[in-house]
Amino acid sequence: MVMLSSSERFATLETFAEQIGQPVFIVDVEGEKQFRFRYLNSAHESATGIIPDDFIGKMPHDVVPERVADTLVVKYETCRARKKPYSYEEELELAGKSRVWQTTLSPVLDAFDDVKTLIGVAIDITRTKQGEFAAQDQLTQMMRTNEELQLLASSTAQDVRGSLQSILGMITFLQDGFLDLGDQKFDQLNLCHAMVTNTIGRMDRISNTAASLQLDTNAKADVDFSHVGLDIAANADPDKRFTVHVADSHIHTDRVAVQMVLRTLFENATKYAKSKITMRVSDEGAEPGRLNFYVSDDGSGLADDLRCDGTPIVPTAAGGMYDLGMSTAAQLITARGGDMVRCSPDFEGGATIGFSLPGQMVSKDAKAVTG
């Protein structure tokens, strides 16, 4: 058996990485939460615009904004501690370009079962994510149209049914005691009675069908809430202007909807927070089969006339307080049977906005992850 030296092993890895055709990076593990970039292949440079020499030999905090580096270290440490491949989705702004990646880290262990190296393979899924967000927006609009059609069909059917019931009553009145003179008028009354009765039945079926028309919004997946929250914070607050606490929970819910609404609320919070923002999720007090989400900041709070707890938020026009996609977010939540509401603030004088989505808790930790 031929034993390869450390340098020979890395040379083999680098040769393999160049042949993959996808962005690949290699990270040396120097200890717990201590990582240093060793290699970036040419596909990585082409996809990200990062010059390898700007990263090689440096630690995450040396080359990217602090909060972004924090999230990278958390992911690398997760893979190191688990000693098995770790896949995740992340949005990163590198070399001035924002991209969404599906990244898989694979640990390389030495003879003592210690992780010495991480190999990362990243696939650009930006277009896929843009498609998901666009589809969510279209679905929300379709659901609003669907609700309007349901209302129109139901109200029209009820109006027509009421008139038909009046006609049926008059026909029944005429039938009662009608003297048949052999000119088939009584048969005609019976025919009219049957036709009106049949039409009323059709109106009832239309009402029932309209009430049952629902678009499928049950596309759920397992979601690492802290991972999603910290990624949102890394992109919206890369320079770590705020202390961010995110609940360490795993949930089963509409992943894309959670990403869209949390990001909107977090970006809104950064406009008003002084130094702290929290994101949390809970099934306590939620309706069965639903989860409650909350985003809080320690800013100056909502206006006095907006302090009513539990009152649904009606987004204002662009330029007002809710000018960062809040209208779309509120519509998305409403389409899923919930409301975006003002809640009792987590921070004295601050603001907390909550919303609900269908979902279940998978696991939760009493501690929050700080980013």
UniProtKB/TrEMBL annotation:
Coiled coil: none annotated. Residues 9-58 form the PAS domain. GO terms for molecular function: phosphorelay response regulator activity; protein histidine kinase activity; protein kinase activator activity. InterPro entries: BphY/WalK/GraS-like, HATPase_C_sf, HATPase_dom, PAS, PAS-assoc_C, PAS-like_dom_sf, PAS_4. PROSITE patterns: PAC, PAS. It comes from the Bacteria. One of its GO terms (cellular component) is membrane. Keywords: Kinase, Membrane, Transferase. Its EC number is 2.7.13.3. GO terms for biological process: osmosensory signaling via phosphorelay pathway. Gene3D superfamilies: Histidine kinase-like ATPase, C-terminal domain (3.30.565.10), PAS domain (3.30.450.20). It is an enzyme of class 2 (transferase). It catalyses: ATP + protein L-histidine = ADP + protein N-phospho-L-histidine. Residues 86-137 form the PAC domain. NCBIfam families: sensory_box. This is histidine kinase. It comes from Litoreibacter roseus.
